[in-house]
Structures are given as C-alpha cells and as structure tokens.
Amino acid sequence: MANSVLVTGGAGFIGSHVADRFLAEGWEVTILDDLSSGREENIPSAARFVRGCITSPDAATLVRDGKFDVMCHLAAQIDVRRSVLDPVYDATRNILGTLNLMEAVRTGGHPTRTIFSSTGGALYGDFDPPPSTESFAKDPEAPYGIAKLSVEYYLAYYGRVHGLDTVALRYGNVYGPRQDPHGEAGVVAIFCNRLLDGRALTVFGNGEQTRDYVYAGDVAGANFAAATATLPPRGRLDARAFNIGTGIETSVNTLAETLRTVSGATAPIDYAPARAGELARSALQTDKARTVLGWSPKVPLSQGLTNTFTFFSDRRARLAAEAKA
User: Fold this and answer.
1) What is the pLDDT at residue 185?
2) Both 147 and 12 in a single domain?
3) How much is the pTM?
4) Residue 144 designated active-site
5) How confident is the model at residue 180 (pLDDT cuts 50, 70, 90)?
C-alpha cells in the first residue's frame, strides 16, 4: 500500500509543487485547499482534492480520519502586508487554523508526521549578518512572521508534551512556475509579468537589499526529504527546524538584471522610495538540512529564473490563444 500525504494549500504555488513531488515518488496525495489564493489549474489530476478551510470542523475531521502518514502544512494567509493591516485575520488563519489541524492529529491517534512551512527571512530579522543559522535570535517584524514563529513554538510543544512527529522548514524567498505575485516573494512573478508587458521594473530603495531565492522544485524536494528522513530527537524550538535556501545573497538589482538577460527584454529599471521596515539583507545557512535531511538546492538562480519566465510567457500565449478560440 502506498504511503499517503495530505498537502494543505496544495492548490497554491508552493503546495502544488510539493504535491507533484510526492506523486512522482508514488505516494497517494490528498489536497486540502479553500482556493482563496490557490488555483484549481494548479491541482495535479492524480491527486484527490478536498475543498475546505483549515479552520473548519470538516478539515479537522479529514485530518483525524484520514490517517495520513505525512501532512505537509502549507495552507496560510500568505500576504505580509495584509497581516499588518489585519493581524486578527492573519492569526485566525495561520495560528488557529494550524491548531485546528494539530488537535486533529493529536486526537486521531495516528502517527502523522507534520511538516510545517515556516519562514526564514521573516523570522530572524535584521539584527545579525547573514547567512542565518537555525539558532539565530528570532525577532520578526510583521504579524505574518510572528504567527509563523508562534506555530513553531506550538509544534515544539506538541512534540515534547504529546509526542507528535513535527518538523518546521524555514524557507527563503521561494520562486518558480505558478508563483503568485501577491505572495511573500512575489517580486520574481511581478518582474516576469512586467517584462512580458514591456513595462519598466520597479525597484524600491537602491536595489542593494538582498534575499535568498530558492527554487520551488527544490523546496518540494525539501518537503519530501523531511517526510522520509530520520529526524533528530524532539526538544527545544530549533531541534527539528531546518533552513531551506541557498545561502546566497542576491540583490534586487542582480535579480532584475538576470531576469532581463534570460528574457531577452530591454525594459528599464525605475527606482522608487524604499519601503519602511524592509529587511536589508537575508540569506539562510543550510548545513543542517544537508547533514540531517540529505537535502541541498539543485537549481541555480539563472536556470530557475529561465524556467519561471518561460512558464509565464507560455501561460500568457496559451490564454491569448484560448481567448481567440
């Protein structure tokens, strides 16, 4: 009998890549998504799809009765700006929604391994120079990061007190095909669409702020590695937390120039005032994931950006052809 995985948020950008990876490995995949930000077109045809919200009793029933081997929990309120404007909504989805699922795991009595999609850049803040290790001080600026950190504390609690099998993956800025321009790392999707429109690329500040851009396919691989690896003993907050990135700082200026190169476009770059509260530098040290999970990033930035731009270009051409038909 094949192993089974529940991917919450599996109709979303990252979640759909995670679902694809588990299907490719021969697992039975169930997707739970309310389609508030995910798209039906992202759902793999071989997966079972259940439409629902993670805060609902039906979602808890699905988790409790499904007896999944693994739950990859990616469903979330993903917009940092919305978390600032409405922290109650953010906490309801990202904290209470997760607790709804974790209580279902606890009361269901099945040893479901829960893999939580956390954040790297938004967790560590701007107080220590990158690359950040898992043990760096956590001091998130926005409610989005605060909620992610809160959930990690709850996961550590469920592990220590109730013996649940939990792990947190702290992502860098994930990019790739199917990316939503409104997500945490939506700049790549935004730049791709602007290049296709022949519009200028807008860079905030001087463009020298850095991020750790990690390809969605590599993130999917990290989820599969976390699902199948032998994990360290349960313990304090960072015991089962892993940075998932490249360890490479890439400036927004470099990102824009690389995208212009791979796309062949000559769009100008416009500079706008810096945004308040934006991190100056971010990169994640991934030695722990390499050693414990056997995971390391495979796709270099230039190749990943080429794949992403090609996806958006092909998608636009397909939609134009469908509109004419």
Assistant:
1) 58
2) yes
3) 0.95
4) yes
5) confident
Q: How far apart are CA 98 and CA 105, in angstroms?
A: 11
Output the six-digit token pair for 185.
């790392």
Tokens of 163: 């013996």
Could you give the percent of the chain with pLDDT greater than 90?
82
Per the CB < 8 A criterion, the answer to whether 57 and 39 are in contact is no
What are 321's two structure tokens? 């052809």
SS3 content of the chain, % helix, strand, coil (to 5): 45, 15, 40
Same domain, 141 and 201: no
> Is residue 80 classed as helix, strand or coil in its secondary structure?
helix
pLDDT in tens, 243-277: 999 999 999 999 999 999 999 998 999 999 988 76
pLDDT digits (tens, 9 = 90+) for 41-76: 999 999 999 999 999 999 999 999 999 999 999 999
Domain total of the chain: 2
In three-state secondary structure terms, 219 is: helix
Decide if 105 is inside a domain: yes
Q: Which of 212, 53, 186 is nearest to 123 (CA)?
A: 212
Range of the domain at 257: 187-210+247-280+299-324
List the structure tokens of 80.
């940092």
**pLDDT tier for residue 84 given thresholds of 50, 70 and 90:** confident
Instruction: Answer yes or no: are the C-beta atoms of 29 and 47 closer than 8 Å.
Output: yes
**Choice among 89, 124, 144, 154 that is catalytic:** 144
- Rounded Cα distance between 312 and 314, Å, is 6
Distance of CA 162 to the CA centre of its chain: 27
Residue 156 lies in a domain: yes
